[in-house]
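Section 3.1: Structural characterization of target chains.
Under the original work plan, the team committed to producing a structural model for every single-chain target entering the pipeline before any wet-lab resources were allocated. The record below documents one such target. The sequence was received from the expression subgroup and is listed exactly as submitted; it comprises 165 residues.
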Amino acid sequence: MKRRISSGFTLIELIIVVVIIGILTVSVAPRFFTGDGSTNVATVHAQALSMLRLQQQRAMQDTAFRCYGVLTGASIQRTASSNTSICDVVAVSEGAIDLSAVSFTVTSGPTSGFLFNGLGCPVSLAHESSIEACGSSSIQWEFASGGSTRYVCIQSQGYIRSGVC
């Protein structure tokens, strides 16, 4: 009995590969080859999510120093009331996120910035002097460029996600 040694791909495997490449071409390629700014918005959106989650984790891990947050106002200067320690806040307008190619808007919540408490909930900037509880309000940011818009939602209980609040 002759035994046939097969080498290479079957017709089914080749068709599946072509279909997968076609799907990727249709869905992913336009994002990288168009000049409408959607790539910039996607990048800035990912940077914002990462920065917010980092500050939130730092606030939850460091129970002695309750001043981790984000500033969104362009002219805000944070100083300590005494010579002990300064709040560790990230200023969006000072290069924490590259906003040169997109427009940034705080669509709901405090426009100047916020802190995270020890439970990871967003609280006002006054939290460093008087403790606040969770659940006061959600915060929504909008990043837009060209025809592309992305949203970041920081819910009142601390969940940070993509999308509208």
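The mean pLDDT is 78.
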